[in-house]
Amino acid sequence: MSSDNTIDSAAVKKVANLARLKVTEEQTATYGAQLSGIIGFVEQLSEVNTDNVEPLASVVDITLPPREDEVTDGNMQEEILANAPETLEGFFVVPKVVE
Amino acid sequence: MTNLTNLTITEALKGLSAKDFSAMDITNAHIDAMAAAKDLNCFITETPELALEQAKASDKRRASGDALALDGIPIAMKDLFCTKGVQTTAASHILEGFVPQYESTVSQKLLDAGTITLGKANLDEFAMGSSNTSSYFGNVISPWRDDSGADLVPGGSSGGSAAAVAARISMAATGTDTGGSIRQPAAFCGITGMKPTYGRCSRWGVVAFASSLDQPGAFGRSVEDTALLLQAMSGHDPKDSTSANLPVPDFAAALTGDIKGLKIGIPKEYRVDGMPEEIETEWQKGIDMLKNAGAEIVDISLPHTKYALPVYYVIAPAECSSNLARYDGVRYGLRVEGEDLNATYENTRAEGFGDEVKRRIMIGTYALSSGYYDAYYIKAQKVRRLISQDFMSAFEKCDALLTPTAPSAAFAIGENEDDPIKMYLNDVFTVPASLAGLPGMSVPTSLNAKGLPLGLQILGRPWDEETVLRVGGVLESAANFTAIPNINAKIAA
């Protein structure tokens, strides 16, 4: 684990971009300090010897149950669109993405 | 007539079946209580008309001899459960106005058990918090007060649920617990709250925060009430792939009052540095109560305890950043237009999410990003296994654990806000069991010197809610906690 745990403005901007969150210059500094604090706090995990330890993703010791590959639901266009900010002729509307 | 808002579920069911009062009477009394305590801000959406309709149907069923298990019992539904036709916000601006077209499995089960829904309870935004101060719809104020007179937090994230039950607005309530969000507010509000084993209650239709940790659970003013509500919420659901296909035991029947010979583990690592003396004393009182009831007290060790919070603050934000990627301003919720699609995403999410949610999304994104994934995320998952193994080894020596629920009593609104980690430390005793998926419950045991409730936590083996409840029942009888919040004492006087 890296010992340098400060998250500078460039790192905040990169993460914010990956997370699709707009941040102002002012917020960048605040978040940088707070995120550095949290990352500094979790750095203590590097003390723990985890050689030969398998990562634990879920406490549920089951394999995901398969089911028949068949349609079980559907025909609910109206319900699906009911909460959309903008719809047109049965579709979701987004800002133009192709010129 | 009996004070209908002070009844336990058990008492209410008895009175309903004896025709001492109707579901309509109970519901009206609670709607009045909800209106009188509006200042506490326990609800984001109140649904009195719906509640009255449900009460009418409930009385009809009872009259024709078809009463259901919890018929006529008014509850608060944490606003994280999707409810068909009723706004569901997760306390976030980004979901303001969202009206689900479907009913979550847990809330459907409760409707099928005949409960009356008073409204959607306030919470920390997306269930991220320990104080209920991150809701877009305002803070929840605890019905308890100390002599400082300051408004206190009810705990979080299920703060509205816990405050509503404590303030006698609601007879019981649903909650969800990711790192302590049922147990900690139960302790702060002087009521009982239980998170069952991960997989006992379906997560289908519950707005997701950290999917490997999120688990619905119940609040009540007695251990038995909590068991009754949890019973109705539990059971296998094919729509949630992590829901366990196991029979649900009769939880209330587990309250035998007999813990003779049961081994209760006391984890030495929970005596943390700087723990207030009142918490230490309370814990010792609880140990003595269980010993006097015939339990054998066993010292145990959970060596990786101190790493639970850092593990949690990698895993929960990582899962949160992934789950919350769905809020894009396209299919539901808020949209803030930008010059192109990317700008629309960024504007929508910047305006729609609050500060704590953004912090967690960014931490999670960072921990999952290229170059840091192994160092943070995989590392945290490995330590999570060690924490889980600690508990499994402990349960070879004991049947349940007793610990404090939280490291302090409720604090004033605004405290612990200066540093995110200070707030995170509230969950130091609840997070380890969440990482291991264990059932846990908080039982109120005393008031501290300032007159605020303290609670103790009981943890059990996976799928052994019954032992947790049995120990909880004994602790409840021994502690005989009868205090009611100051605002209710004022109304009664």
Q: Which fold name corresponds to the CATH topology of the domain at 4-259 and 442-450 and 467-492 in chain B?
A: Amidase signature (AS) enzymes
CATH architecture of the domain at 1-47 in chain A: Orthogonal Bundle
Over the alpha carbons, how many angstroms does the gyration radius of chain B reach?
A: 21 Å
CATH topology of the domain at 1-47 in chain A: Histone, subunit A
Compressed to H and E, one letter per element, the order of chain B equals HHEHEHEHEHEEHEHEHHHHEHHEEHH
Number of strands of chain A: 2
**Largest β sheet strand count, sense and barrel closure of chain A:** 2 strands, antiparallel
Physical arrangement of strands within the biggest beta sheet of chain B: 1-3-2-4-6-5-10-11-9-7-8
Q: Any guess at the CATH architecture of the domain at 4-259 and 442-450 and 467-492 in chain B?
A: Alpha-Beta Complex
Total E-strand runs of chain B: 11
Structure description:
Chain A is mostly helical and 99 residues long. Chain A has a domain of 47 residues: Histone, subunit A. In chain A, 33% of the residues lie in helices and 4% in strands. Chain A is flat and about 55 Å long. Chain A starts with 8 loop residues before the first helix and ends in a 7-residue tail after the last strand. The mean pLDDT of chain A is 90. Chain B has a domain of 291 residues: Amidase signature (AS) domain (Amidase signature (AS) enzymes), CATH 3.90.1300. Chain B has 16 helices and 11 strands. In chain B, strand 2, helix 4 and strand 3 form a beta-alpha-beta unit. Chain B is of the alpha/beta class. In chain B, 38% of the residues lie in helices and 13% in strands. At the A-B interface, helix 1 and helix 2 of A face helix 9, helix 10, helix 11, helix 12 and helix 13 of B.
